[in-house]
Design brief:
This protein is mostly helical and 194 residues long. It has 6 helices and no strands. Helix 1 runs antiparallel to helix 2, helix 2 runs antiparallel to helix 5 and helix 3 packs antiparallel against helix 6.
Amino acid sequence: MNRIIKLALADLVLNAALAAYHILFGLLERSWWLLTLGAYYLILSVLRLTVTLAKKSDAFTVKFTGVMLMFLSLPLVGTVILAAISDRGTAFHMIVMIGIAAYTFTKITLAIINFVRAKGRASARILMLRSISLATAAVSILSLQRSMLVSFEGMTAEEIVIMNACTGGAVCLAVFTLGLNLVIRSKKYKYNNR
């Protein structure tokens, strides 16, 4: 368990840095998309810190984490709509995009593997931390896709909007489902703690 807590704290530092990056560049570029992503990562970082430092992982903590993930999916819907209307994404050089893609695909792969492993364990804390990691990775995929579509030629502006809307909807649904899963599983932990 100590190893998992140490990894969660390292991931917390990385996510907090990612939040600060998005907020800083969101302010500099006056981009609502970057500001919202920064706020999203910041809230997930605070949620991860709460779960990591909690004395016990009881039904309330599991349910609270689930409700927060469900709540976070709602502003994400607004962000996806806003991005489709006014903000196409940021174009980067091909080498930068390859680095971002490698990082994002590594992150999503590890998050999925760890989430699947956590499903079989009884620890509520591990399940919550893995759900938060998967929610973070899902939004990273959306951000990567938005940048890739404007960095590389081949799609029209209309096709980019459709693709971003579809992927954004899927990410919002995935984050909401992760939260709902925790709310449902909180009943199990409530029953087990009696």
